[in-house]
């Protein structure tokens, strides 16, 4: 088993394409919502790729930093940090200017009990950020949840297909996209919107959810019978490379792995590595939340880590007692209640 420090190094290790992207990108980088699940490794990836490119760039991470030690860990990695409530217009005005902004602010879990906060976090925060950084390039994370559940027998939605969000979280995510496009058109702000599902690493994600249930002998619901997954490092790398594709109106990209994978098969393969037999409940529905990542593959090639390697990394981590972020994805939710 690798250590937490070794895992963090792996998740932020630049490839040649990342170094080239940072070499070609002019100016500093601000990351809004840096303290979430993916933000710290994205910030470190940007820092390391910039350093390897020989580019003297400020990488500034912005968040509330409510988790003890998160801010200090970033600063040890050479990332400047600013504590800020992104719903506070005056606080946003005090942030340093930068020609490049990654918007990672969002709320998914807790939506059912606090719809107002979800809409404020997903839509109002995006609007305020787009106003504040109107002169910047903005790469904004969205979600594949903006698509409807689609037939397993048919093709998954591409970026040109109609959206159809299920549930209040997904509706607010589409609202975020709409307000970003509004400001992009109003202010000619070049943007990229990344519809992500699902990023994984050993401490969280769909594969970790399945590994935990297999290890504990808990039933795995099969109604959402198929998923897409992508290694977190690869998703972050795509985000940084997408600055080169920012446009007005926004460039939209599905970010996920190339395979639509059966949950039953994933759990079975994880079980083989853990020496446990999965327990299943229910049956696969005819529909699932899926995305077509063909455009992503055409632009950036296949992910650096394939499905078998992801399964191995997560299963080995769980078998060795590796820690969890304690943030289950609820990927099995079909009615959009989070």
Quick description:
The chain is an alpha/beta fold and 338 residues long. It has helices at residues 4-11, 16-24, 39-53, 70-76, 89-93, 115-132, 168-187, 206-216, 232-241, 263-274, 294-300, 307-319, and strands at residues 29-32, 59-63, 80-83, 100-103, 137-143, 150-151, 191-196, 199-200, 219-221, 226-227, 230-231, 251-255, 261-262, 279-281, 287-288. The protein has 12 helices and 15 strands.
Please describe what this structure looks like:
It is a single chain. The protein is α/β, with parallel strands linked by helices. The protein has a domain at 4-197 and 231-256 and 291-298: Rossmann fold, CATH 3.40.50. It contains 12 helices and 15 strands. The strands form 5 sheets. Strands 3-2-1-4-5-7-12 form a 7-stranded parallel sheet, with helices on both faces. Strands 6-15 form a two-stranded antiparallel sheet. Helix 2 packs across helix 3 (39-53), helix 8 packs across helix 12 and helix 10 (263-274) packs across helix 12 (307-319). The longest helix has 20 residues, at 168-187. The chain is globular, with a radius of gyration of 19 Å.
Question: What features would you highlight for this structure?
Answer:
338 residues; alpha/beta; Rossmann fold; 7-stranded parallel sheet; two-stranded antiparallel sheet; 12 helices; 40% helix
